[in-house]
Amino acid sequence: ELKVEQNPLFLSMQEGKNYTIYCNYSTTSDRLYWYRQDPGKSLESLFVLLSNGAVKQEGRLMASLDTKARLSTLHITAAVHDLSATYFCAAINTGTASKLTFGTGTRLQVTL
Amino acid sequence: DTGVSQDPRHKITKRGQNVTFRCDPISEHNRLYWYRQTLGQGPEFLTYFQNEAQLEKSRLLSDRFSAERPKGSFSTLEIQRTEQGDSAMYLCASSPDTRQGGVTEAFFGQGTRLTVV
Fold it and tell me: Do B107 and A45 touch (CB under 8 A)?
């Protein structure tokens, strides 16, 4: 059974600082997703990572995938308050028709 | 059609009542998923449709839960005899079939927040 773990669960950081969120998954996965969720809202897709070594960047966020280590990272550069949200990674188990298994999420709070 | 639409957005119901939620996926998406999210947790898979066929159901989906997608377009999720433990956000997502090409990225609706009192 595919399991996805994220750490940290909660992250408080100052504006302008850098930090990394880690996502480990337990079995082979076709691809890895990162989503953002604001309080009371739905999930917004950030990145889809398809292969080993994949790196994608959008603004201050950069995601990478190491399939050998079963690890994905979401790196935040020079955080700003608008990035405050909960970030989820999700993996797909090979052959399960794109059913997503989510991590428990990382609640990011960026303080002034 | 700009995205996945869910109705209602909020539902408060008394324990023991039945509730039904609706999801309208992105029109060209063959696949439709239901997830449940409780406070402080990630979404958990409930069930999946390929067109009108329900192909997978989670063990989380008790006999009180039923989902349909009668014409392969919109879907409904019904919960019978609601319990307080059913209180959660119910999320619907859709994605294209892999045979149609492209990445099978799932797009989520705004969710239906259910409160059972």
Answer: yes
Instruction: Identify the DSSP state of A98.
Output: T
- pLDDT tens sequence across B37-90: 998 899 999 999 999 999 989 987 889 999 999 988 999 999 999 999 999 999
B35 pLDDT exceeds 90? Answer: yes
DSSP A61: E
**CB contacts, 8 Å: B45 with chain A:** 99-101
Q: Do A33 and B56 touch (CB under 8 A)?
A: no
Residue A97 is predicted with a pLDDT of: 63
Q: What is the dihedral of CA A52, A10, A34, B60, to 10 degrees?
A: 110
Q: Is A45 exposed, middle or buried (0-12, 13-18, 19+ CB in 10 A)?
A: middle
Beta carbons of B95 and A104 less than 8 Å apart: no
Instruction: Please tell me the predicted confidence (pLDDT) of residue A1.
Output: 83
Strands A61-66 and A55-58: antiparallel
Q: Where are the beta strands (DSSP E) in A50-99?
A: 55-58, 61-66, 71-76, 85-93
